[in-house]
Write a structure and sequence with these properties.
The protein is α+β, with helices and mostly antiparallel strands. It folds into 4 domains: about 110 residues, no CATH class; about 50 residues, no CATH class; about 55 residues; about 100 residues, no CATH class. It contains 13 helices and 7 strands. A hairpin with a 4-residue loop joins strand 6 and strand 7.
């Protein structure tokens, strides 16, 4: 285990220590016996643990540092204090916890305003998508970014909207021509097999579980329905979105799982060494490889001059320095990429 991973688990251990120690202090007989007569100092220490140390360790563990994240986590720590610390002990500091609730409420209102803005501009967004030459999986998020503030909640709504569009409203569309990623694999057959398995599991287990626990059976039913919708949407998304290439960029998508726009001018080189291709891909490599029943390797890896931003499941954004690709026509794709790189260099 390297130093980075070891450090990550240390922060996770510290998170567990803070939560468990504060829980034991107020909710076990041993902890109650340890409390002094004047508990204000101890309670204040617990509040500082939950407002400062807990958010700090969470950010260190996730490696996401921002003022907004710190505020949100601190407010969440205030709310958590109301559940961990008994009311009669928390009473002198109750104003602090109300501040946390007020902050969380303000953030929720802000997110709701963004969602209202999203709905308000939907007709304009749809019109923008219809006029765009890009595939819907790329043009829809771009249109949203023009009208609505960039926000994780909006990214998630965008991702879910794409899923429902491909699952229910795309079946009359004809797949465009272009280099594909899935035709030389059993990917779609595997997705259909998964849908059949989920339907059979739902029919068999749901009714048995319904007599045992109605709540659990309903939760599983909703999850299974969502999974079927997702697989249907993913099948359509990968069928209707072959690689889209223009003079400036290449647009790659693997169903609804991931997508990326690669500018040819940002490609440093194309790696084709079989020794490298057959090695385990590094963490800063995003792969557009359809997983099959057999072991498969990329046809090429694009090394980028600067990290490229990819959109993952649920709208999560992440940057990568390498892009691994396995296509149904690697020779044609390599020729196109090299020609585009050369032409871009000539222009610049």
């Amino acid at each position: 285990m390297n130093v980075v991973k070891r450090g990550k688990y240390i922060w996770l251990l510290m998170l567990g220590f803070i939560l468990s120690s504060n829980y034991m202090l107020y909710h076990t007989q041993i902890g109650v016996n340890l409390l002094p007569i004047k508990t204000n100092a101890v309670v204040l220490g617990s509040i500082l643990d939950l407002m400062i140390m807990l958010p700090l360790f969470l950010m260190l563990y996730s490696k996401k540092f921002s003022i907004k994240t710190a505020i949100v986590l601190s407010a969440a720590g205030c709310i958590l204090a109301r559940f961990l610390i008994p009311n009669h002990l928390l009473e002198p500091f109750v104003a602090i916890t109300w501040i946390g609730i007020a902050v969380e409420a303000a953030l929720i209102i802000f997110e709701l305003m963004l969602i209202i803005t999203f709905v308000r501009y939907m007709p304009k967004i749809i019109q923008k998508v219809k006029l765009s030459t890009l595939p819907v999986v790329f043009s829809f998020p771009k249109a949203i970014d023009e009208y609505v503030k960039n926000n994780p909640i909006i990214h998630m709504i965008c991702s879910e909207s794409l899923m429902f569009y491909y699952a229910f409203f795309s079946w009359k569309k004809t797949p465009p021509t272009g280099i594909t990623l899935y035709k030389n694999s059993s990917y779609i057959a595997f997705q259909i097999m998964m849908i059949h398995a989920i339907v059979i599991e739902t029919l068999g287990i749901h009714w048995w579980l319904h007599d045992k626990s109605i709540i659990i059976s309903i939760i599983l039913l909703v999850l299974n329905i969502y999974s079927v919708v997702y697989f249907l949407a993913d099948i359509q998304a990968i069928r209707l979105n072959p690689m889209y290439i223009n003079e400036r960029s290449m647009y790659l998508s693997l169903g609804l799982l991931k997508r990326v726009e690669i500018e040819f001018n940002d490609i440093e080189c194309v790696i084709e060494d079989s020794m490298i291709l057959e090695n385990k891909l590094s963490k800063d490599t995003i792969d557009f490889i359809v997983r099959d029943f057999a072991k498969v390797y990329p046809d090429m890896i694009l090394k980028m001059k600067k990290p490229v931003k990819a959109i993952l499941f649920m709208g999560i954004q992440k940057e990568y320095s390498y892009v691994a690709i396995k296509s149904d026509n690697p020779t044609q794709l390599k020729e196109i990429i090299l020609n585009k790189i050369e032409n871009r260099h000539i222009e610049f």
